[in-house]
Amino acid sequence: MKRSLNIAHRGFSGEYPENTMVAFRKAIEAGCDGIETDLHMTKDGVIVICHDETIDRTTNGTGFICDYTYSELCEFDAGIKFNRQFEGERIPNIDEFLDYVMDKNLLINLELKNDMIPYSELEKKVIDKVYEFGVEKNVIISSFNHYSMIRVKEYDKNIKTGLLYTAVLYKAHEYIKTVGADAMHPFFSSVMNKKIVTDIKKNGIIINAYTVNEKKYMERLIELGIDGIITNYPDKLKKILENS
Ligand code: G3P
Ligand code: CA
């Protein structure tokens, strides 16, 4: 059976400020096979990396990303709230991130955070960046907004898409075909079931489950043959994968 991939969630976010360059560097040092990260768009159309629609939780600023220009956003510190030792980390833009990962043979999971704010042409802009940095073979674009995943395929059918969801979907393998996606990205408890996993895998669909931080769940998902495990602790998962 193929080994599950170790995908660092927002970088090595268990120990470093999420979605910052230090978190991405440390995830790679910890031995991850891939990185998951979240994308929004600024007022002047720059794609930036942050989980929430606002910068309140993760930076020393407040307000919506879409209300700032990129240069205004750069004034805020994205490390200091996590720990003073990370003072000086900034909100990365997509170019910085892709430039850093492009030659590292990683799975790159770009989550479009467009389920609350319908950023204009986010799909097209992200795909253009993916080609600019030559990472199209390594990328899965995912979202909780499945209409957006349709738009990705309309723009470029060769880009892989992943459907994020939390429910225990009835016949998930049939639903995914209606959206034309390549992968399911479920909350992990939605697929803790051999029949569900077998049905999805039999249909040639990739399953990458999030966010798995406890040893017992990592072990169970590995046993079930999940393709990718998205975790805040790539160091812990690496050890478990080595012993499984
Ligand atoms: O992509 C997996 C996971 O990150 C989705 O949920 O809220 O952590 O972005 P969230
Ligand atoms: Ca995410």
Automatic annotation (TrEMBL):
It comes from the Bacteria. GO terms for molecular function: glycerophosphodiester phosphodiesterase activity. Its EC number is 3.1.4.46. Residues 4-241 form the GP-PDE domain. It is an enzyme of class 3 (hydrolase). One of its GO terms (biological process) is lipid metabolic process. Keywords: Hydrolase. InterPro entries: GP_PDE_dom, PLC-like_Pdiesterase_TIM-brl. It holds the Pfam family GDPD. PANTHER family: GLYCEROPHOSPHODIESTER PHOSPHODIESTERASE, CYTOPLASMIC, GLYCEROPHOSPHORYL DIESTER PHOSPHODIESTERASE. This is Glycerophosphoryl diester phosphodiesterase. It comes from Clostridium magnum DSM 2767.
